[in-house]
Write a structure and sequence with these properties.
The complex is a heterodimer of chains A (about 450) and B (about 350). Chain A is mainly alpha-helical and about 450 residues long. Chain A has 14 helices and 10 strands. Chain A has helices spanning about 5-20, 20-40, 45-80, 80-115, 120-150, 170-175, 180-210, 215-250, 250-260, 290-295, 315-345, 355-365, 365-380, 405-435; strands at about 155-160, 165-170, 265, 270-275, 280-285, 300-305, 385, 390, 445, 450. In chain A, helix 2 (about 20-40) packs antiparallel against helix 5 and helix 7 packs antiparallel against helix 13 (about 365-380). The longest helix of chain A has about 35 residues, at about 215-250. Chain B has one domain (about 5-330). In chain B, strands 1-2 form a two-stranded antiparallel sheet. In chain B, about 75% of the residues lie in helices and about 0% in strands. Chain B has about 350 residues and is mainly α. The chains are: A mainly alpha (about 450), B mainly alpha (about 350).
């Protein structure tokens, strides 16, 4: 494989693995604020138990997020040096702002959240929890702003020519509020809430099925289920808005999502399908004019298809199509599941519907799959550009890093991440099996014996 | 324009300040990690780990933010150094990951083999991080081969030269000294007495390394010394550095552990200031063609970006300092193990 493919593969592996964890931190952060807020309001020890148990799970996901996030901060420079030179003036400030405004807040107050229960008063502890949740949210803000600038660049001009060309910022706020940043932020953040809420639902449903920690599990579900439903509804709304923005600013990407080839024709809305890229057509189950209607409210409105773009400027079509539709399908499934859960809760049958609880146990995988599909669709759909319309991915590579060097680091990361993932699952499983009543293990070994 | 209001110059020192923050804060927890295996007892190891428990990941954020600030203020430097030092930086990342994970996972299970494995990775990761940070600084002081378009033009073997390795060892001993003093501050009883002995030994090791490095710098990297011969007033920095170091055993002997620790912080700041003065205005000197070097003037972002970033820094840094100080205040005093501990 050449250096370009390897560098892209390494970025994909490291970012996909990293992105398993921040959504859980952001979602659980909101849940912790809810749980501890309930504790302050009602004074019931049950809610403190909730806050303390889920804070431990939060700490685990946060540690994984920090360890793997550091890699991302380095990787722009190590593997995409030409890109870094080109965008540093614009992209760098968003990244630096993330460090200063988000990471310090999150990691600083996390110390109080985890270790400060006996050191500060409950009100201050709650304040620390809110700050941790806010810090997690801010990091999403800045990283989504930076990525959205790569999708829909704004607030800059290009200086220099050829190899010396680079983007320079002209208007900071136009860069921050570029056409896609806010709607994508809403979509990403609600996706994170969904990840956190369904994790809580999954573990709590598991306890209910096992008939353990019943009060704890029910209280967790009562807080997480509304969050899951709200997140799912907002996901659908922001997803629709996001697609409209993609249609307006990245028409080739939208055409790929729908496998829409004709240069100018009403676009159907596929439920499922398969794109034959060599014959430039898509077969599947589709509502005629559906996409046109979603974009403009008119089923006959023409939408530019892939044939309106030279082949060199088109993204990989079938992959984008399948990822996009996979995301939508999982998202709809989660929405239905959350709605069904709330309905059963309202009817008073939720705790006894074992098949529904079993579905909830599995549901933790849903947001993870949808988040990954969505990001892969967004990034693959942007190809062949690294900065849409400005810089091609093939032009962004580090010139001095050879394919063999990337092989070495790719193998290293794959091995480390496989180990990390196994450990993460093992420890998560331990915590869940021990349950909320167990304090941290304080056993001390001396020469082989556990005291 | 006067040099002190030139934003390019301001950002040189601001990035330097962030790196100094990193060296002072993560320096002690890297040092604690490097000393970790000197304690044999599980209880002692847990005490050491929990001495840095609430603060280590906040400390690491200084590295992330320094990286972000470098990316934003001097993109060509970020691009050249990170892609040029590819393999050492990948190794650094591996070390940082193992270290972070070791802290997090060590106490989760009580088995001896489990804890021993993570203790070794914690120690090895900490030593490797300190060493690689030092090797990077050493190469930046010495200069690296650059091509006319500002790309790194050497191989990984060029980076592992004796001078850079020497600076790597110097950094490791510095952090071990700093970590030992931090542990003196945070421990009590028998462990406290033992750690006091570590301080003596690490100070001696550091002073020896420092003397050798100074000599090597004067002989092999004379450019680092030119600002001092041009402006003899700058000699106040190495003098302050030596005074700060000399003050540490004095304060330890009087039992004033906090003052000893602050002295050690001052020593690190002085050392990095010395490094910055020697380097300025260059960020990546070129060897053997000095005219190809990346400086604050040919490798900076646009004035607009530097101004925006200054706004972000002026807004953000006071907040960062405020909650860093409050966290250290809340977790002040000797470390004790409770049910929330690692």
């Amino acid at each position: 494989m050449d250096a370009l493919t390897l560098a892209r593969l390494q970025f994909a592996v490291t970012i996909a693995f990293h992105y398993l964890f921040p959504p859980l931190s952001i979602g659980l952060g909101v849940f912790l604020v809810l749980a501890e807020g309930m504790f302050l309001k009602t004074g019931r020890p049950l809610y403190r138990q909730l806050a303390q148990f889920w804070a431990k799970i939060f700490a685990l996901t946060f540690a994984m997020g920090v360890a793997t996030g550091l890699v991302m901060e380095f990787e722009f420079g190590t593997n995409w040096a030409t890109y870094s030179r080109y965008v540093g003036d614009v992209f760098g400030s968003a990244l630096a702002a993330e460090g200063i405004f988000a990471f310090f807040l999150e990691s600083g107050f996390l110390a109080i959240l985890l270790f400060g229960w006996d050191r500060v008063r409950p009100g201050w502890h709650f304040f620390a929890t809110v700050m941790v949740a806010l810090g997690a949210l801010f990091s999403a803000v800045w990283i989504v702003v930076a990525n959205s600038w790569m999708q829909t660049p704004a607030g800059f001009h290009v200086v220099g020519q050829g190899l010396a060309a680079r983007a320079e910022i002209t208007d900071f706020w136009a860069m921050v509020f570029n056409p896609s940043s806010m709607v994508r932020l809403a979509h990403v953040v609600t996706g994170c809430w969904s990840a956190g809420a369904f994790l809580v639902l999954s573990v709590s449903a598991f306890y209910l099925l096992q008939r353990r920690h019943l009060e704890f599990a029910k209280a967790s579900i009562r807080l997480a289920l509304p969050l899951a439903l709200a997140a799912s509804i907002l996901q659908a709304a922001s997803g629709h808005q996001s697609a409209v923005v993609v249609g307006r600013h990245q028409p080739a990407k939208l055409a790929a999502f729908e496998g829409h080839y004709p240069a100018s024709a009403p676009a159907p809305l596929h439920l499922v399908g398969w794109v034959d890229e060599s014959r430039e057509r898509t077969v599947g189950l589709a509502l005629p004019g559906g996409t046109s209607w979603l974009l403009t409210g008119d089923v006959r409105h023409p939408v530019p298809g892939l044939q309106a773009f030279p082949p060199a400027d088109r993204p990989p079509v079938n992959v984008s199509f399948q990822l996009f539709h996979g995301m939508v399908a999982v998202g709809v499934g989660l929405l239905l599941l959350a709605a069904l859960g709330v309905w059963s809760w309202w009817r008073g049958t939720l705790w006894d519907r074992r098949w529904l609880l079993r579905l909830f146990v599995l549901s933790v995988l849903g947001p993870q799959a949808a988040n990954q599909f969505g990001w892969f669709a967004a990034e693959i759909g942007r190809q062949p550009w690294i900065v849409y319309g400005l810089l091609r991915t093939s032009e962004g590579l580090s010139k001095v890093v050879t394919a063999n060097m990337i092989w070495a680091s790719l193998i290293m990361f794959t091995a480390i991440y496989a180990l990390l993932f196994a450990l993460f699952l093992f420890l998560l499983d331990q915590k869940i099996r021990r349950g909320p009543e167990d304090a941290a293990p304080t056993g001390v070994y001396r020469h082989g014996a556990v005291v | 324009m006067a040099p002190w209001c030139d934003l390019r110059v301001v950002w040189f020192w601001l990035v330097g300040a962030l790196l100094t923050g990193y060296a002072i804060l993560d320096g002690f927890d890297l040092g604690v990690g490097a000393l970790h295996l000197f304690s044999r007892d599980d209880q002692d190891r847990r005490l050491q780990l929990n001495a840095i428990g609430p603060v280590w990941d906040g400390n690491e954020v200084w590295l992330v933010t320094s990286g972000g600030a470098l990316f934003a203020a001097f993109p060509p430097v970020y691009a050249t150094v990170f892609s040029g030092f590819y393999l050492p930086f990948m190794l650094l990342l591996a070390a940082l990951i193992f270290r972070a994970v070791a802290i997090e996972f060590r106490s989760k299970l009580p088995m001896r083999w489990w804890r021993q494995t993570w203790d070794v990775s914690f120690c090895a990761g900490s030593v490797l991080c300190s060493l690689l940070v030092g090797v990077t600084l050493g190469n930046l002081a010495r200069g690296v081969p650059l091509s006319p378009d500002g790309e790194f033009a050497g191989t990984v073997l060029d980076l592992l030269n004796p001078y850079a390795l020497l600076v790597g060892v110097l950094t490791t001993t510095l952090f071990m000294m700093h970590g030992a003093i931090y542990l003196v501050l945070k421990t009590e009883g028998a462990l406290h007495d033992r750690v006091r002995g570590w301080v003596q030994r690490t100070i001696i090791a550091f002073i020896l390394c420092y003397a050798v490095t100074t000599l090597a710098t004067l002989l092999y990297v004379p450019a680092m010394a030119t600002p001092f011969t041009a402006h003899p007033g700058l000699f106040v920095i190495p003098v302050l550095l030596l005074l700060a170091i000399a003050n540490i055993p004095r304060e330890i002997a009087h039992g004033r552990d906090l003052r000893a620790f602050l002295s050690s912080c001052a020593a690190i700041a002085a050392l990095l200031l010395l490094f910055g003065v020697g380097l300025f205005p260059t960020l990546v000197p070129s060897r053997p063609n000095p005219e190809l070097g990346l400086t604050v003037y040919n490798a900076c972002s646009s004035p607009t970006t530097l101004r925006i970033m200054l706004g972000i820094a002026l807004l953000g840094l006071p907040l960062v300092l405020a909650y860093t100080i409050s966290i250290y205040w809340i977790f002040r005093g000797k470390v004790r193990l409770d049910r929330h501990s690692y």
